[in-house]
Design goal:
The complex is a heterodimer of chains A (113) and B (116).
Chain A: E1 3-7, E2 10-14, E3 19-26, E4 30-38, E5 45-51, E6 56-59, E7 62-67, E8 72-77, E9 86-94, E10 100-103, E11 107-112
Parallel strand pairs in A: 2-11
Antiparallel strand pairs in A: 1-3, 3-8, 4-5, 4-9, 6-7, 7-8, 9-10, 9-11
Chain B: E1 4-7, E2 10-13, E3 19-25, E4 30-38, E5 45-51, E6 57-58, E7 67-73, E8 76-81, E9 90-98, E10 106-107, E11 111-115
Parallel strand pairs in B: 2-11
Antiparallel strand pairs in B: 1-3, 3-8, 4-5, 4-9, 5-6, 7-8, 9-10, 9-11
Classes of the chains: A mainly beta (113), B mainly beta (116).
Protein backbone atom coordinates (compact mmCIF):
# COMPACT_ATOMS: atom_id res chain seq x y z
CA UNK A 1 0.00 0.00 0.00
CA UNK A 2 1.36 3.41 -0.99
CA UNK A 3 1.96 5.62 2.03
CA UNK A 4 3.49 8.98 2.83
CA UNK A 5 4.43 9.75 6.43
CA UNK A 6 5.33 13.23 7.58
CA UNK A 7 6.95 14.46 10.74
CA UNK A 8 6.58 16.31 12.93
CA UNK A 9 2.80 16.63 12.91
CA UNK A 10 3.13 20.23 14.09
CA UNK A 11 5.96 22.62 14.77
CA UNK A 12 6.22 26.04 16.40
CA UNK A 13 9.25 28.22 15.76
CA UNK A 14 10.24 31.83 16.21
CA UNK A 15 10.43 34.21 13.30
CA UNK A 16 13.85 34.20 11.70
CA UNK A 17 14.69 30.64 12.73
CA UNK A 18 15.25 27.72 10.37
CA UNK A 19 13.36 24.44 10.40
CA UNK A 20 13.31 21.10 8.61
CA UNK A 21 10.27 18.99 7.84
CA UNK A 22 10.51 15.29 7.07
CA UNK A 23 8.73 12.99 4.65
CA UNK A 24 9.10 9.22 4.32
CA UNK A 25 7.30 7.37 1.57
CA UNK A 26 6.57 3.93 0.25
CA UNK A 27 5.17 4.57 -3.20
CA UNK A 28 5.76 2.41 -6.22
CA UNK A 29 6.41 3.04 -8.98
CA UNK A 30 7.83 6.42 -8.06
CA UNK A 31 7.43 9.30 -10.48
CA UNK A 32 8.05 12.48 -8.53
CA UNK A 33 7.77 14.08 -5.11
CA UNK A 34 6.32 17.50 -4.46
CA UNK A 35 6.14 19.72 -1.44
CA UNK A 36 3.06 21.92 -1.19
CA UNK A 37 2.23 24.81 1.09
CA UNK A 38 -1.40 25.05 2.12
CA UNK A 39 -2.63 28.12 3.92
CA UNK A 40 -5.70 27.65 6.08
CA UNK A 41 -8.82 27.58 3.95
CA UNK A 42 -6.88 27.62 0.70
CA UNK A 43 -5.79 25.09 -1.90
CA UNK A 44 -2.25 23.67 -1.93
CA UNK A 45 0.44 25.60 -3.77
CA UNK A 46 3.44 23.75 -5.18
CA UNK A 47 6.83 24.68 -3.73
CA UNK A 48 9.17 22.12 -5.28
CA UNK A 49 9.06 19.03 -7.45
CA UNK A 50 11.77 16.41 -7.66
CA UNK A 51 12.14 13.37 -9.85
CA UNK A 52 14.11 10.24 -9.10
CA UNK A 53 17.41 11.65 -10.33
CA UNK A 54 17.24 14.92 -8.41
CA UNK A 55 18.43 15.11 -4.82
CA UNK A 56 17.95 18.79 -4.07
CA UNK A 57 15.76 21.60 -5.31
CA UNK A 58 15.49 25.16 -4.07
CA UNK A 59 12.75 27.73 -4.33
CA UNK A 60 13.78 30.88 -2.52
CA UNK A 61 14.00 30.13 1.19
CA UNK A 62 12.66 26.62 0.63
CA UNK A 63 15.09 23.79 -0.10
CA UNK A 64 13.89 20.24 -0.63
CA UNK A 65 16.05 17.14 -0.62
CA UNK A 66 15.32 13.68 -1.87
CA UNK A 67 17.05 10.40 -1.10
CA UNK A 68 15.47 7.89 -3.45
CA UNK A 69 17.39 5.01 -1.91
CA UNK A 70 16.01 5.50 1.58
CA UNK A 71 12.76 7.01 0.24
CA UNK A 72 13.09 10.10 2.36
CA UNK A 73 12.64 13.76 1.63
CA UNK A 74 13.04 16.91 3.67
CA UNK A 75 11.95 20.50 3.30
CA UNK A 76 14.21 23.08 4.88
CA UNK A 77 12.93 26.58 5.48
CA UNK A 78 15.48 29.25 6.22
CA UNK A 79 14.96 32.59 7.94
CA UNK A 80 11.31 31.83 8.61
CA UNK A 81 8.69 34.55 8.26
CA UNK A 82 5.26 34.91 9.81
CA UNK A 83 3.75 34.20 6.40
CA UNK A 84 5.37 30.76 6.41
CA UNK A 85 2.74 29.67 8.93
CA UNK A 86 0.81 27.00 7.02
CA UNK A 87 0.49 23.29 6.51
CA UNK A 88 3.25 21.72 4.42
CA UNK A 89 2.23 18.63 2.53
CA UNK A 90 4.46 16.03 0.94
CA UNK A 91 2.89 14.43 -2.12
CA UNK A 92 4.34 11.50 -4.03
CA UNK A 93 3.25 10.68 -7.53
CA UNK A 94 3.22 7.14 -8.84
CA UNK A 95 3.91 6.89 -12.51
CA UNK A 96 3.05 4.63 -15.35
CA UNK A 97 -0.48 3.79 -16.36
CA UNK A 98 -1.67 4.05 -12.75
CA UNK A 99 -0.84 7.72 -12.20
CA UNK A 100 -1.96 8.69 -8.74
CA UNK A 101 -0.99 11.02 -5.93
CA UNK A 102 -0.39 9.86 -2.38
CA UNK A 103 -0.68 12.66 0.15
CA UNK A 104 0.98 12.99 3.51
CA UNK A 105 -1.08 14.40 6.36
CA UNK A 106 1.06 17.49 6.45
CA UNK A 107 3.10 19.34 9.03
CA UNK A 108 1.42 22.35 10.56
CA UNK A 109 4.04 25.06 10.95
CA UNK A 110 3.43 28.06 13.15
CA UNK A 111 5.89 30.93 13.06
CA UNK A 112 5.60 33.24 16.04
CA UNK A 113 6.99 36.76 16.30
CA UNK B 1 0.19 30.55 -15.73
CA UNK B 2 -1.53 27.32 -14.66
CA UNK B 3 -4.33 28.87 -12.65
CA UNK B 4 -7.28 26.86 -11.43
CA UNK B 5 -10.31 28.63 -10.02
CA UNK B 6 -13.24 27.37 -8.01
CA UNK B 7 -16.64 28.90 -7.50
CA UNK B 8 -18.07 29.54 -5.04
CA UNK B 9 -15.33 29.86 -2.43
CA UNK B 10 -17.85 29.43 0.36
CA UNK B 11 -21.40 28.14 0.42
CA UNK B 12 -23.89 27.56 3.19
CA UNK B 13 -26.99 25.56 2.43
CA UNK B 14 -29.86 23.86 4.17
CA UNK B 15 -29.95 20.13 4.63
CA UNK B 16 -31.61 18.39 1.70
CA UNK B 17 -30.65 20.92 -0.94
CA UNK B 18 -28.15 20.43 -3.75
CA UNK B 19 -25.01 22.47 -4.25
CA UNK B 20 -22.93 22.83 -7.39
CA UNK B 21 -19.22 23.67 -7.27
CA UNK B 22 -17.36 24.72 -10.40
CA UNK B 23 -13.72 24.11 -11.18
CA UNK B 24 -12.10 25.93 -14.09
CA UNK B 25 -8.64 25.84 -15.59
CA UNK B 26 -8.14 29.45 -16.63
CA UNK B 27 -5.12 29.35 -18.90
CA UNK B 28 -4.71 25.76 -19.96
CA UNK B 29 -6.78 22.84 -21.16
CA UNK B 30 -7.26 19.99 -18.75
CA UNK B 31 -8.21 16.55 -19.99
CA UNK B 32 -8.35 15.31 -16.42
CA UNK B 33 -9.61 16.99 -13.29
CA UNK B 34 -9.68 15.62 -9.79
CA UNK B 35 -12.00 16.29 -6.89
CA UNK B 36 -10.77 16.06 -3.30
CA UNK B 37 -12.36 16.47 0.09
CA UNK B 38 -10.46 17.65 3.12
CA UNK B 39 -11.64 17.51 6.71
CA UNK B 40 -10.05 19.69 9.41
CA UNK B 41 -6.46 18.75 10.18
CA UNK B 42 -6.62 15.93 7.65
CA UNK B 43 -4.97 15.46 4.31
CA UNK B 44 -6.72 15.66 0.98
CA UNK B 45 -8.78 12.61 0.10
CA UNK B 46 -9.38 11.86 -3.55
CA UNK B 47 -13.08 11.51 -4.30
CA UNK B 48 -13.12 11.07 -8.04
CA UNK B 49 -11.22 11.50 -11.28
CA UNK B 50 -13.02 13.38 -14.00
CA UNK B 51 -12.13 12.97 -17.67
CA UNK B 52 -13.48 15.32 -20.30
CA UNK B 53 -16.29 13.74 -22.26
CA UNK B 54 -16.54 10.57 -20.22
CA UNK B 55 -17.91 9.37 -16.91
CA UNK B 56 -16.01 10.11 -13.75
CA UNK B 57 -14.16 7.40 -11.87
CA UNK B 58 -15.06 7.37 -8.20
CA UNK B 59 -12.88 6.19 -5.34
CA UNK B 60 -14.07 3.39 -3.13
CA UNK B 61 -16.66 4.55 -0.65
CA UNK B 62 -17.68 7.67 -2.58
CA UNK B 63 -21.31 7.59 -3.69
CA UNK B 64 -21.52 8.54 -7.35
CA UNK B 65 -25.23 9.34 -7.09
CA UNK B 66 -24.58 11.76 -4.27
CA UNK B 67 -21.56 13.47 -5.75
CA UNK B 68 -22.36 14.12 -9.38
CA UNK B 69 -19.43 15.10 -11.55
CA UNK B 70 -19.65 16.59 -15.00
CA UNK B 71 -16.61 17.41 -17.14
CA UNK B 72 -18.24 18.89 -20.18
CA UNK B 73 -15.29 20.84 -21.56
CA UNK B 74 -11.52 20.93 -21.36
CA UNK B 75 -11.64 23.84 -18.93
CA UNK B 76 -14.63 23.10 -16.70
CA UNK B 77 -15.64 20.38 -14.29
CA UNK B 78 -18.52 20.59 -11.83
CA UNK B 79 -19.24 18.73 -8.63
CA UNK B 80 -22.84 18.65 -7.44
CA UNK B 81 -23.52 17.52 -3.90
CA UNK B 82 -27.07 16.24 -4.01
CA UNK B 83 -29.39 16.20 -1.01
CA UNK B 84 -26.66 17.58 1.17
CA UNK B 85 -26.47 16.67 4.85
CA UNK B 86 -24.42 18.17 7.68
CA UNK B 87 -21.87 15.35 7.38
CA UNK B 88 -21.13 16.57 3.84
CA UNK B 89 -19.77 19.80 5.31
CA UNK B 90 -16.15 19.91 4.28
CA UNK B 91 -13.51 21.67 2.20
CA UNK B 92 -13.73 20.57 -1.43
CA UNK B 93 -10.68 21.08 -3.64
CA UNK B 94 -10.30 20.40 -7.33
CA UNK B 95 -7.16 20.01 -9.34
CA UNK B 96 -6.49 19.94 -13.06
CA UNK B 97 -3.90 18.18 -15.17
CA UNK B 98 -2.75 20.00 -18.31
CA UNK B 99 -3.11 18.01 -21.49
CA UNK B 100 0.56 18.61 -22.25
CA UNK B 101 1.84 17.63 -18.78
CA UNK B 102 0.03 14.61 -17.51
CA UNK B 103 2.34 14.23 -14.49
CA UNK B 104 1.29 17.54 -12.98
CA UNK B 105 -1.75 18.70 -11.01
CA UNK B 106 -2.61 22.32 -10.29
CA UNK B 107 -4.94 22.84 -7.38
CA UNK B 108 -7.84 25.22 -7.04
CA UNK B 109 -8.32 27.42 -3.97
CA UNK B 110 -11.03 25.20 -2.53
CA UNK B 111 -14.70 25.58 -1.64
CA UNK B 112 -15.90 25.53 1.95
CA UNK B 113 -19.30 23.83 2.14
CA UNK B 114 -21.38 24.14 5.28
CA UNK B 115 -24.65 22.26 5.46
CA UNK B 116 -26.99 23.39 8.22
Amino acid sequence: KNQVEQSPQSLIILEGKNCTLQCNYTVSPFSNLRWYKQDTGRGPVSLTIMTFSENTKSNGRYTATLDADTKQSSLHITASQLSDSASYICVVSSGGSNYKLTFGKGTLLTVNP
Amino acid sequence: GAVVSQHPSRVICKSGTSVKIECRSLDFQATTMFWYRQFPKQSLMLMATSNEGSKATYEQGVEKDKFLINHASLTLSTLTVTSAHPEDSSFYICSATPTHRTDTQYFGPGTRLTVL
